[in-house]
Design brief:
single chain; mainly beta; two-stranded antiparallel ribbon; about 60 residues
């Protein structure tokens, strides 16, 4: 039996910044689907510093 592991494909992220200032950034995005149907989580970096991690379409910070 041969098992072929297909490369995972992530569909594009459509990110919208609706408000931003020095203390706040408001973002929205469409759900990103994985070709392997795995959950997709996000991290946000500002000036190369991690400011939020493990975000998902249903889990926000």
């Amino acid at each position: 039996m041969n098992i072929i592991d297909q490369a995972e494909i992530l569909y594009p992220l459509n990110l919208v910044v609706s408000a931003a200032n020095k203390d706040l950034i408001e973002l929205s995005w469409d759900k990103v689907n994985s070709s392997h149907f795995k959950p997709v989580s996000y991290a946000i970096y500002v000036d190369n510093k991690l400011v939020a991690k493990d975000l998902s379409i249903t889990n926000t910070a």
